[in-house]
Design goal:
Structural class: alpha/beta
CATH class of the largest domain: Alpha Beta
Number of helices: 6
Number of domains: 2
CATH architecture of the largest domain: 3-Layer(bba) Sandwich
Helix content: 25-40%
CATH topology of the largest domain: FAD/NAD(P)-binding domain
Order of helices and strands: HEEEEEHEEHEHEEEEEEHEH
CATH superfamily of the largest domain: FAD/NAD(P)-binding domain
Shape: elongated
Strand order of the largest sheet: 6-13-7-8-9
Largest sheet: 5 strands, parallel
Radius of gyration: 21 Å
Distance between the termini: 35 Å
Number of strands: 15
C-alpha cells in the first residue's frame, strides 16, 4: 500500500515497470475509432489498425466544453480546460471557473507554486469535498467568489481582460490565465455509431470492459481505477480460458 497515497501519474509509472518485466510494450497511438464486427474489435489509429477479441477501455474523461464570447481566441494560449499547461508556472494570476473538486484541487496546486488564484462560482453552492474547501479557505493566495458569472473574454498582449457579473454588478479584471473547470464527461467519442448501442450487450457478454474514470462518474480515484483494472484482467483471463 501507499501510506501517503499515490497520484495517478506515479501509479501509471509503476505499472509501466510491471509491463516491462512481463515483456509487454505499450503502443502509443491515438485511437480514432473503435468498431465491432461480431467477431473482433477494430481499433483504428493514424498509424493503422489493431484487432482483438476483447477490448478494455481505460480512456478516462475529457473536459465538458463551454462557450463564452471571446473564448475561442484565448483557448490554448491563455485559456485552458486542463491544469497541466499551467503547473510549471509561478507568480501568475489565474482565474478559475467552477466550484467542484477539480476547481479547488487546481487552485491548491497552482497556489502551492506561487500563483495567485481566484475561483469563480456562478452559483452559491460549492460541490467540492469539504477538505478541499477547508484547505482553499485557509490559503491566502486563493480567493473564492460566489454568484460570479463570466460574461466576456478579451485577449490582448500578455494577459486576459475578463468581464464578470458579480452579485448583480459588472466587474472587469485582468489575469494571466483562465482555467475552465466546468465538469468532465466520459471519453468515448471514438466509438463508432454502430457500436454505441451495443456497449451494454458487449459488456454483459464479457467482451468489452470499461474501467476507471471512463465509467465511475464522480468517483475518480487512482485506487478505484486500479481495482477496476484488476477485476477486468481476471474476467478477461477467465473468458480466454473458456474459449480454449
Amino acid at each position: 500500500g501507499f501510506a501517503e497515497g499515490i497520484t495517478g501519474p506515479r501509479l501509471a509509472a509503476l505499472l509501466r515497470k510491471h509491463l516491462a518485466r512481463a515483456g509487454v510494450e505499450p503502443v502509443q497511438e491515438a485511437v480514432e475509432s473503435l468498431e465491432y464486427d461480431g467477431a473482433a474489435f477494430h481499433f483504428r489509429t493514424a498509424a493503422g489498425e489493431h484487432t482483438g477479441r476483447i477490448a478494455v477501455l481505460a480512456t478516462g474523461t475529457r473536459p465538458r466544453e463551454v462557450s463564452f464570447p471571446g473564448l475561442d481566441a484565448a483557448l490554448g494560449v491563455r485559456a485552458f480546460y486542463e491544469v497541466h499547461p499551467l503547473l510549471p508556472l509561478g507568480g501568475k494570476r489565474v482565474s478559475i471557473v467552477g466550484a467542484g473538486d477539480a476547481a479547488f484541487d487546481y487552485a491548491l496546486n497552482l497556489a502551492r507554486r506561487g500563483n495567485r488564484v481566484t475561483i469563480h462560482n456562478r452559483g452559491g453552492r460549492r460541490s467540492c469535498l469539504p477538505l478541499l474547501w477547508e484547505r482553499a479557505a485557509a490559503n491566502e493566495d486563493i480567493e473564492y467568489r460566489e454568484d460570479s458569472t463570466l460574461l466576456n473574454i478579451e485577449t490582448g498582449g500578455e494577459c486576459l481582460s475578463l468581464s464578470w457579473r458579480d452579485e448583480e454588478r459588472d466587474v472587469r479584471e485582468s489575469c494571466d490565465y483562465l482555467l475552465l473547470a466546468t465538469g468532465r464527461e466520459a471519453n468515448l467519442g471514438f466509438l463508432s455509431g454502430s457500436m454505441r448501442p451495443r456497449v451494454r450487450d458487449l459488456q454483459a457478454a464479457g467482451l468489452l470492459h470499461l474501467i476507471g474514470d471512463v465509467q465511475n462518474g464522480p468517483f475518480r480515484q487512482a485506487a478505484i481505477a486500479a481495482g477496476d483494472g484488476i477485476r477486468a484482467a481476471m474476467m478477461v483471463s477467465r473468458k480466454l480460458d473458456e474459449s480454449k
